[in-house]
RNA sequence: GUCCUUAUGGUGAAAUGGAUAUCACAACGGUCUUCGGAACCGUCGUUGGGGGUUCGAAUCCCUCUAAGGACACCA
């Protein structure tokens, strides 16, 4: 809780107390317009009925009783509109806050609301042997941002990833690798040579992709092949066929290693930083369906006896009577665990490895219905874990050309999308020859497009708008940061010192920029409470706009202006907050574009 | 058919039950020989329909309409 907000709530409560109202809840918010003050409360409207007088009169009475004269932070308190009480903070407050921002630096905006809490965040979840598509990219973007935000709120955060290394998609790939002569030859060649770099790895991933496409086609076209693939699938589960095992292990390793390359590209910070392609890691916990399946099936069988599940048509199901939702199959009639059973196993394994206070799972919203059923089943089996589990879902990332689907084969790869955006960025930022900066702009364009609106709804990715520095975009924020940095640099050259917190009070108006700075910590808190990164994105854009307007109307690095040190300090604070905020979105802040 | 989600200017979005619904893009017009013009300022235009709750509704409830998703062995 932000100190000043708490103080205003306390003052209001005391005033209400004098009028005979005891309450714990004083709703304190920011007025829609900066000109209406810095904080506002609606208590007069809430209690006017109880007092039998009109809200404005009651508001006046409350204001008379608010003792703010002893508070340097408060300039004035006014009644406005239908009975709002508006608080105006003082120049002194804004000055002090500016000092706080500069002093806190990279830590500004952090809080300790989740101090001591252990939180596991599962996200991304690509499947080995399949493409890392833009849906995974979206999940990774949201998950990484949420992980950073709750970490900034003081929690210990562990990143987890859950990958489908078994299932029919794997069998399709293995089938083609074994059955198709040229694919098989290529596979043997790759298997017998070492993987020295990313390019080598990429070639192998290409081969797996071809094999999957071929297997998928034959599975749908040829009934006999379908039967074979189903047999292979079963053997992958029980590991009974050595030849299949060998194809499987090699392909899985290539796939998993390639995903690590992608996490690098997406800007994740490695947890194990190694040049060795086999040991580089970006997540704290890696979970595989091949492991959760075994345990999940055991759990289902155990609770079948206890009456949670029941047999039906050769499968084990969780009936709609139990869930009051809809019936789902947990172990299919082939005696294999479905995703549902695997998830039960996963929950147990996760908690055994890490005694979390909260387990967050981020997925696409097409599994919302399924997840509700799953949580119901979990309530029967581990009620305490069910309570700690939070499912967050997101919509689809759609490209202008059309809809992305992993089932129809019309898949949009994440790498391909990055490449396309890079082309647009390079065209636009011709001068920038620094490849790492280009990458940072590419990622900010994509990530910001995802994070700027509330999660849950589909995002239509617009190449031009996402890269444009003229609208509400990641690159716009990066540009504003770079410009602020450039102004600060200029001030240094002009020998203008930045204002320090012990400096004297300057007789000057309160700028709109200042009125936004102190709100950042509140925004971070709310984003953390609601697992909603978009609050940060929205705020940063407003801050950047306000700063750019200030920049357009004021000369900042002006030696002849006695207020220049203060303006430079404001610029520094804006830059700092943009950097901190972008970091929470998983976006870098290059000093030059 | 049942259940879930969604519906805000031409387009994409924001809004903790609060004040005159806020931005961006597009369109139109303007500023200034610039600390990074990749700027700034302005004009235009919006809560799907109908009821209800409330001092107050984009937000909560009911209903209709439309779109998307889930609804037994995929994940």
UniProtKB/TrEMBL annotation:
UniProt keyword terms in alphabetical order: Aminoacyl-tRNA synthetase, ATP-binding, Cytoplasm, Ligase, Nucleotide-binding, Protein biosynthesis
DALR anticodon binding domain boundaries: 477-593
Domain Arginyl tRNA synthetase N-terminal, chain residue ranges per copy: 6-89
Pfam family, one: tRNA-synt_1d
GO cellular component entries: cytoplasm
Short motif ('HIGH' region): ranges: 126-136
Reaction catalyzed: tRNA(Arg) + L-arginine + ATP = L-arginyl-tRNA(Arg) + AMP + diphosphate
Protein localization: Cytoplasm
Entries under InterPro entries matching the protein: Arg-tRNA-ligase, Arg-tRNA-synth_N, Arg-tRNA-synth_N_sf, ArgRS_core, DALR_anticod-bd, Rossmann-like_a/b/a_fold, tRNAsynth_Ia_anticodon-bd
Signal peptide start and end residues: none
EC number, UniProt record: 6.1.1.19
Entry's transmembrane regions: none
Gene Ontology terms: biological process: arginyl-tRNA aminoacylation
Catalytic class of the enzyme: ligase
Main location class: cytoplasm
Description of how the protein assembles with itself and partners: Monomer.
NCBIfam families noted in UniProt: argS
Family according to the record: Belongs to the class-I aminoacyl-tRNA synthetase family.
Stated name of the protein: Arginine--tRNA ligase
Source organism: Candidatus Campbellbacteria bacterium RIFOXYC2_FULL_35_25
Gene (name only): argS
